[in-house]
Please model this.
Amino acid sequence: MAPRFPLYIDLYDNNCVIFGGGNQAAERAEVLLKFGAKVTVISPTICPKLKKLDEAGLIRYLPRRYYRGDCSSGYLCVAATNDEAVNISISDECKAKLIHVNVTNPSEFGTFMFPAVISKNDVTVSVVSDSDPEQAEIICGKLAKTFDSIIKD
Model:
């Protein structure tokens, strides 16, 4: 796979739709919320992290499965269901509508990679890895320690 170009976009007040209710969906929701996105989660069930976000009014939760057309309201979408065929359908819909989509599995169907992110005082650093997302998280964690000493409040 060719290297990906890092594209920083404004998510503030834009609707981001996440399909799936597991831990990967929750992690992505938490990151999107940090950037001011309005997050809608569509899934028959949700994990405890997403349940807390829903109860706090931080996300909009629709307790049902994906239906064709659900991507239409998304500025960007995340396909994080546990069903590859559903994720591919979401990807196909998004691509047809020119909506950026991150697909957790199979990841090659996405149009962007979801990065590990640190942000402080209007400075944002992101790390991605095509083959090892955990490695990106580890590197980002190490950068965060240095980041705090460089970027002052």
The longest strand covers residues 15-19. Residues 35 and 47 are 22 Å apart (CA to CA).
